[in-house]
Amino acid sequence: xxxxxxxxxxxxxxxxxxxxxxxxxxxxxxxxxxxxxxxxxxxxxxxxxxxxxxxxxxxxxxxxxxxxxxxxxxxxxxxxxxxxxxxxxxxxxxxxxxxxxxxxxxxxxxxxxxxxxxxxxxxxxxxxxx
Length: 130
Description:
By secondary structure, the chain is α+β, with helices and mostly antiparallel strands. It has a domain at 14-84: Immunoglobulin-like (Sandwich). 14% of the residues lie in helices and 30% in strands. It has helices spanning 100-113, 119-122, and strands at residues 15-21, 28-32, 40-44, 49-55, 59-65, 70-77. The strands form 2 sheets. Strands 3-2-5-6 form a 4-stranded antiparallel β-sheet, with no helix packed on it. The protein has a two-stranded antiparallel ribbon with strand order 1-4. It is globular, with a radius of gyration of 18 Å.
């Protein structure tokens, strides 16, 4: 899979295909900054799946925040996000999923972001009609 911008250095042999899912309701910035002479930064919208190639030693930083600021909310080794390239299709679809580690990460994030709906918001109510 070729990167559209800023391809990996051509002299490396430890490239892996990775998948990250933004399981939050906020826009995130995914960034890899620990690889010399390589720049990787992408916006990941809520629910979006990001497929990318990286070096096995890369760390994916996830920055979450608002318009004015962003905080580093997670740092994930790309080896945990690696997907199985031996699957029939290298691009995950509804039938093929990221590796078990990526799924475990996705489930962990989902369990942290799900909050019970307050009872007052559970049932819609009509308050005024003009």
